[in-house]
Amino acid sequence: GSRSSKTFKPKKNIPEGSHQYELLKHAEATLGSGNLRQAVMLPEGEDLNEWIAVNTVDFFNQINMLYGTITEFCTETSCSVMSAGPRYEYHWADGTNIKKPIKCSAPKYIDYLMTWVQDQLDDETLFPSKIGVPFPKNFMSVAKTILKRLFRVYAHIYHQHFDSVMRLQEEAHLNTSFKHFIFFVQEFNLIDRRELAPLQELIEKLGSKDR
């Protein structure tokens, strides 16, 4: 069924009082310092999987919100294919319900993508929220797939909707969010360089400002 274009996925909350909540607070505090390279580093003595889990949830929420601001401009008509500029087009497959990649409009693709990510995040066996519950062996590969797919939403927004983002005066918010995302995936080698190609110039520009 189609959801109203106004509401998007519900925010995924990290339970207050949990260790992951403390980590999220740590992430927010270091982000406030303005040094994003430092903000993405694994805090001393912390579990890498847990750090990646907390940040992945946070990026999902951020992208969800950013895309939510431009959904009225991203329609079946204006974006009949899911693309990131003329050279990159994405077809959807999740490996379970849709095994063979299908061509679909950007809003449909992003809906599939965000629903799929949300299902992964809600799966306690993949993203355990309780302390002491171990992460599964395939956690890292799932996290990488989630981040690779979330990147495509940024790429679509930048290539197809940046003018709308500017009209809404959201570009500083988008750039900060994307820069945080890129520094994070670079710090832990989470997305293959080839996958980042649609925004390579922007990534280099963001990185050079920070050296």
UniProtKB/TrEMBL annotation:
The keyword Kinase appears for this protein: yes
Annotated positions binding Zn(2+): 74, 79, 156, 161
Keyword Signal (UniProt): no
InterPro entries reported for this sequence: MOB_kinase_act_fam, MOB_kinase_act_sf
Source superkingdom: Eukaryota
A Pfam short name: Mob1_phocein
Keyword field: Kinase, Metal-binding, Transferase, Zinc
Coiled coil regions, renumbered to chain: none
UniProt GO MF annotations: kinase activity
PANTHER family cross-referenced by the UniProt entry: MPS ONE BINDER KINASE ACTIVATOR-LIKE MOB (PTHR22599)
Official protein name in the record: MOB kinase activator 1A
Native source organism of the sequence: Chaetura pelagica (Chimney swift)
